[in-house]
Design goal:
Protein-Tyrosine Phosphatase, Chain A; about 450 residues; UDP-N-acetylmuramoyl-L-alanine:D-glutamate ligase; globular
């Protein structure tokens, strides 16, 4: 198969990421069956498994960057991608090639084409195949450490296939995907805490909900897994910042670490503290102690686009994947505290199932104007709804047909009216399209 044919084949399976519907299954038996047919490529490397509602991708990227700086040959599996499916599978900091992706997909297709069903007749889903492909790539490249981000939840996620692992990391948990994971923080925490395996080290990041921490702690006790609570064992803060990075200070059991972090917001310092705690715990169990300077070097070189990312400086243009009340609040706080923003022109596009009202209520106080757009994503929201939501909050709003035109309209408006900041937000897909347009990339 070619790369395009491989993508077409993968998407011929049930795809909850694109459809919004999750394949109903009580366990990961179909995924385990597929991996067994493939020779269990997920087994062997040191494994760090990361779940949570917020920050898990950032923590995964930070940890991988530090391990790579320390000389490890790393595999990083994350989702979703911004532009190419190949981005989800990175070896030594570089996404695998289209040719390699197609080769691995072809091999997988040959092994399962006679029976596209998993155990007990339950269908495999696209995410099962993508995750398996990631493990295949890591095995082919002989990585010695794999950092694996959970896709959705944890208990029946395609990544939850390790009987043993060195580290389970739980980032902040909040209400999300309630129709799938449960309608309480307690229920969602149980789904995510299920990645904690017997005897593995557990790192729990700062939690806004005590019940989430209690669930994770109880799970760790049940499976005899030692737990490190970042909120009680670490302290962190920003020293200074500019338009490219922030200098941070993290104090933990091993002393004080100072580092430059090319990601903005206080929440990213929390994520960095969680990453440092994870690295230090892994050092005790597996890879050996990593010097503070190496940790700082790894944090300084981390790349995680479309997370409050500055993509242009004159005028200042920031893109971010904020899509609900919590993430919009973090975005607004960061615009004020890091960029001295008292008014901004927003370009907003959302997924059809996202918290539009929460997003609008958090951003409206800063919005001198709002341009609503529709992304190319299958589940993009009708931009007329966005205009209505911001209009109810007395924000001057207009509709533009697509993201590139919306960005161009915003740039023209700043030139005419002297606005100093443009912020593109509402979904990761909209942020990625805007970023590609501004940087001349192929979206």
């Amino acid at each position: 198969m070619t790369y395009d044919e491989a993508i077409e084949w993968l998407l011929s399976f049930a795809d909850f990421e694109r459809s919004g519907r999750f394949q109903d299954r009580p366990d990961v038996a179909p995924m385990l069956d597929l991996l067994e047919r493939l020779g269990n490529p997920h087994l062997g490397p040191t494994t760090m498994h990361i779940a949570g509602s917020k920050g898990k991708g950032s923590v995964a990227a930070m940890v991988e960057s530090v391990l790579r700086a320390a000389g490890a040959k790393t595999g990083l599996y994350t989702s979703p991608h911004l532009y190419e499916y190949t981005e989800r599978v990175a070896v030594a900091g570089t996404p695998i090639s289209r040719d390699e992706f197609a080769r691995l997909a072809t091999r997988m297709q040959r092994l399962i084409c006679e029976s596209p069903l998993g155990l007990d007749g339950r269908h495999l889903v696209t995410f099962d195949l993508l995750t398996s492909l990631g493990f295949m790539a890591f095995k082919c490249e002989a990585v010695n450490v794999q950092v694996v981000e959970v896709g959705l939840g944890g208990r029946v996620d395609s990544t939850n296939v390790f009987e043993t692992k060195e580290l389970a990391v739980i980032t902040p948990i909040s209400l999300e995907h309630t129709q799938i994971l449960g309608d309480t923080v307690d229920a969602i925490a149980r789904e995510k805490a299920a990645i904690i395996a017997p005897g593995c080290a557990v790192i729990i990041g700062p939690q806004a909900y005590p019940e989430a921490e209690a669930v994770v702690r109880q799970r760790a006790i049940e499976v005899n897994a030692p737990l490190v609570n970042v909120a009680t064992e670490y302290r962190w803060g920003v020293v200074t910042h500019n338009r490219r990075s922030q200098d941070v200070r993290i104090k933990g059991p091993n002393g004080i670490l100072r580092a430059t972090l090319p990601l903005f917001g206080k929440h990213q310092i929390e994520n960095a503290a969680t990453a440092v705690a994870s690295i230090e715990a892994l050092g005790k169990r597996e890879v050996g102690s990593i010097p503070k300077q190496t940790i700082a070097d790894g944090l300084a070189s981390v790349s995680w686009p479309c997370r409050i990312e500055v993509v242009r400086e004159d005028p200042l243009v920031i893109v971010d994947g904020a899509h609900n009340r919590d993430s919009a609040r973090r975005l607004a706080e960061t615009l004020v505290e890091y960029f001295a923003c008292d008014r901004a022109l927003f370009v907003i596009g959302c997924g059809s199932d996202k918290d539009l009202d929460g997003l609008a209520e958090e951003l409206a106080p800063l919005a001198v104007r709002m341009i609503a757009v529709r992304s190319e994503h299958l589940r993009a929201m009708d931009p007329r709804r966005i205009v209505e939501a911001f209009g109810r909050l007395n924000v001057d709003s207009e509709l533009v047909d697509n993201v590139p035109n919306g960005v161009d309209r915003a740039l023209a408006a700043t030139s005419d009216a002297g606005f100093t900041l443009i912020c593109v937000a509402g979904s990761l897909f909209v942020a990625a399209e805007a970023r590609a347009h501004l940087l001349g990339l192929r979206a």
